[in-house]
Inverse folding.
């Protein structure tokens, strides 16, 4: 049986240890909290201090940065980027290649499409069809 972790060097030359999440085999950094029922797909990264709630999905190649919070049953699609300190509410969906900026907030149940940029500190809410509301 192969090892269940990998060490990766960051930009400052420090080695960070990531474990392979049981549900999906994506990489979860030491210090991140990912619920056992969440799915972190292969090629996805969850950085130190991030929290991923029950039933959440982190797609292939997605990146959840330090101290970000992903709510229960949220769906982060492939190659999306959740910035440091950002929050994605329960049952929200973040589209493919979408970027949620540092400390931005996506309200629960929001539907954010593909290739969207949510700017640093922005607060976003949508209805079930994905139409943006005043947040």
């Amino acid at each position: 049986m192969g090892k269940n972790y990998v060490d990766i060097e960051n930009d400052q030359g420090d080695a960070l240890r990531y474990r392979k999440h049981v549900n999906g085999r994506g990489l979860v950094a030491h210090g991140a909290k990912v619920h056992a029922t969440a799915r972190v797909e292969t090629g996805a990264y969850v950085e130190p201090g991030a929290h991923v709630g029950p039933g959440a999905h982190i797609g292939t190649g997605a990146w959840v940065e330090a101290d970000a919070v992903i709510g229960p049953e949220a769906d982060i699609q492939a190659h999306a980027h959740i910035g440091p300190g950002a929050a994605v509410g329960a049952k929200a969906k973040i589209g493919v290649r979408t970027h949620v900026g540092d400390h931005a907030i996506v309200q629960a149940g929001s539907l954010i499409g593909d290739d969207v940029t949510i700017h640093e500190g922005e607060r976003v809410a949508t209805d079930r069809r994905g139409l943006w509301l005043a947040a």
The first strand starts at residue 5 and ends at 9. Residues 99 and 117 are 5 Å apart (CA to CA). The domain at 5-10+27-133 is CATH 2.160.10.10 (UDP N-Acetylglucosamine Acyltransferase; domain 1). The chain is about 0% helix and 35% strand.
